[in-house]
Write a structure and sequence with these properties.
mainly alpha; 81% helix; disordered C terminus
Length: 451
């Protein structure tokens, strides 16, 4: 068994012990594309910066985000069965999840390469950015199998309480990415193509490392390559939990595609500023998503172990920790975030636009926190469909309506960005109501039967 103590001990201490490796892991994951953007932006120019971080980044978030959301069903199921000590069911879930990642990686690679130009055109990508964006995106899709295998493998490890080794693998692959970036972009002058090759080679390395670890462990989640296959019943359970999460990710990302398209129409300087801001903004998202991953695993294992009072207390503690961290980060970014822009560009106009974006957005970060925590907690208990519907209404429908009907009447960056706090506040309200008055874990039901 793992040395994990998620179902035992002082809750806040166990949350922190599990949280920090996840946080650093998300940091190094963000550093993949940030390294591409920094090196390409400073060596090649703002058009190349827009190519690796503008439309391409948004498209990648949509595609990969859907699969990661879908595969979270495996993480939830494995954490529940692991908490309940059901070895055979854990094994079925592990082998099915890996098989699914292989198949999905192949499909996404082929479809992605084929549809890339159509999607970039549909997003109104500026002409001076289109061709380098297409190059980056198509090369990135070639490495999709490694990307998905790592994400699924890391999810399996976190499900059983191992948040440290996924971090170690990310550190190794991230450092590899930076070395290859410097070699291909600055050394060989390969531009955005070099950045893309650096990314997929390092992601492949992380996939190899995680598979090697799963094959060597003696715990329930041991992987045998000869047993990698799709178990229909287990796949059905994974999809039942993960599909709503995948669709929820698409809703977030698709609305971001519309926002990116609106920003693209404001010119290259604004696109470059938004690209740089999105990299700095990723500090917030990596922290809040780490708390989301944390609470999903915490709830899943305690749910499987039948410790429902402990998981409810954990949700409250995790929410408080996330709010406190968000307020500190918001303060720091508001007053000192300007220095982050100099990592990406020396263009004065781009920096001015970017700083104005940052100071508009960071004071409202706290309005998103409850969405991430309650959504993750409900998913950990196997409740994914209602949270998806809430996001469909509060995030997707409302944000799309704002972009379609309000933004054209006053098309500037502030009107576009207001779609974020508007939808966060509405969605937070809906989540609180559902969690407290309608969900099984929120109402305090004592006899909860897990899947």
């Amino acid at each position: 068994m793992s040395d994990n103590r998620i179902t035992e001990g002082v809750i806040w201490k166990q949350l922190l012990l599990f949280f920090f490796p996840i946080l650093w892991g998300t940091f190094f994951q963000q550093l993949y594309n940030a390294a591409d953007a920094i090196i390409v932006g400073r060596v090649v120019g703002k058009e190349a910066l827009s190519a690796v971080g503008g439309s391409t980044s948004t498209v990648i978030q949509v595609i990969v985000g859907f699969f990661v959301g879908l595969s979270s069903g495996a993480t939830v199921i494995i954490s529940q069965y692991y908490g309940a000590k059901k070895k055979e069911m854990v094994e079925y879930a592990v082998h099915t999840a890996i098989a699914f990642s292989l198949i999905a990686g192949i499909v996404m690679m082929v479809v992605g390469i084929w549809t890339a130009p159509v999607i970039l055109r549909a997003m109104d990508t500026p002409e001076d950015v289109f061709h380098p964006s297409l190059t980056y995106l198509r090369i990135y899709y070639l490495g999709m199998i490694g990307n998905l295998i790592y994400n699924v493998g890391a999810g399996i490890l976190r499900a059983v309480g191992d948040s440290k080794r996924p971090l170690y693998f990310l550190i190794v692959s991230c450092m590899t990415n930076i070395v290859f970036d410097l070699l291909f972009v600055a050394g060989f002058g390969m531009g955005v193509a070099g950045a893309a090759w650096a990314t997929i080679l390092s992601q492949t390395l992380s996939a190899i490392l995680v598979l090697r670890l799963l094959a060597r462990t003696n715990d329930m989640h041991h992987l045998e390559y000869s047993r990698i296959y799709l178990d229909r019943r287990m796949l059905g359970r994974i999809i039942r939990i993960g599909l709503p999460a995948g669709l929820q990710s698409i809703m977030y990302s698709s609305s971001n595609v519309l926002i990116q398209a609106s920003i693209n129409s404001l010119g290259t300087d604004t696109v470059a500023a938004w690209t740089a801001y999105s990299k700095i903004d990723s500090l917030f998202w990596m922290i809040v998503s780490a708390f989301g991953i944390l609470i999903t695993t915490f709830v899943g294992q305690n749910y499987g172990a039948g410790k429902t009072q402990r998981l409810r207390k954990g949700v409250r503690i995790c929410t408080g920790m996330t709010f406190a961290t968000t307020l500190v980060l918001s303060f720091m970014l508001y007053f000192w975030g300007i220095y982050g822009y100099h990592l990406f560009t020396n263009d004065a106009e781009v920096i001015v636009i970017g700083v104005s974006m940052m100071r508009y957005m960071v004071p409202v970060y706290f309005t998103y926190v409850t969405i991430e925590i309650l959504s993750g907690a409900l998913r950990g208990a196997g409740d994914s469909w209602i949270p998806m519907v809430i996001c469909l209404i509060g995030i997707c429908a409302l944000r799309v309506s704002w972009l379609m009907f309000v933004v054209p009447t006053r098309k500037n960056i502030y009107t576009i960005m207001f779609s974020y706090p508007l939808t966060w506040v509405v969605t937070t309200t809906l989540f609180i109501i559902y969690y407290l008055f309608f969900s099984k874990i929120g109402k305090g039901e004592k006899n909860i039967k897990f899947i």
